[in-house]
Sequence to fold (227 residues):
Amino acid sequence: NAGVTQTPKFQVLKTGQSMTLQCAQDMNHNSMYWYRQDPGMGLRLIYYSASEGTTDKGEVPNGYNVSRLNKREFSLRLESAAPSQTSVYFCASGQGSRTEAFFGQGTRLTVV
Amino acid sequence: GQQVMQIPQYQHVQEGEDFTTYCNSSTTLSNIQWYKQRPGGHPVFLIQLVKSGEVKKQKRLTFQFGEAKKNSSLHITATQTTDVGTYFCSPLSMYSGGGADGLTFGKGTHLIIQP
Fold:
């Protein structure tokens, strides 16, 4: 099994550009999550989807949008990238907050 | 999200020394999970603690959940270079609803091992 797959692995954007980070899981999990990781800040939850058809804001949702396309896929969109969004982004999936989460390999995004 | 304090932020140890990281919450928790992230890698689940006073062991790693379910610790005995990384706790409040919440994390403890 591939587990959780994120694309792309690396991306450089110019300020104001838009892009979508893709995430897919093949474990039939109900819940999916997007995090950003910055030095000294740990993992901060951006958005999550507890089940297909639902999405909720996390700790740092401003500047992002998400789409739970189906049970497998959960995408994160930056409509107008800013340098403050330079970070490593992780997608994760699980069967809910009372079970373990499985993480993707991460996307390293730089906004210049 | 659930507010927790994870300490210390950084810990330097000599190889062979013990290491402990703590996760402290101001509110009672339903459960707590621990994850490890190697440098350049992604977080990997280690364990989940659910019961008050629970102690679980994985080889040289010992995990504890406090009696009041407000704090937890991860202790590594005789550290090895393979233990290098960042250790995160992920607490779930007992007031959360049905497990359909976002998983939040402490800021992590960076373990640096000097050979």
Summary: The CA atoms of residues 94 and 100 of chain A lie 6 Å apart. The mean pLDDT of chain A is 95. The radius of gyration of chain A is 13 Å.
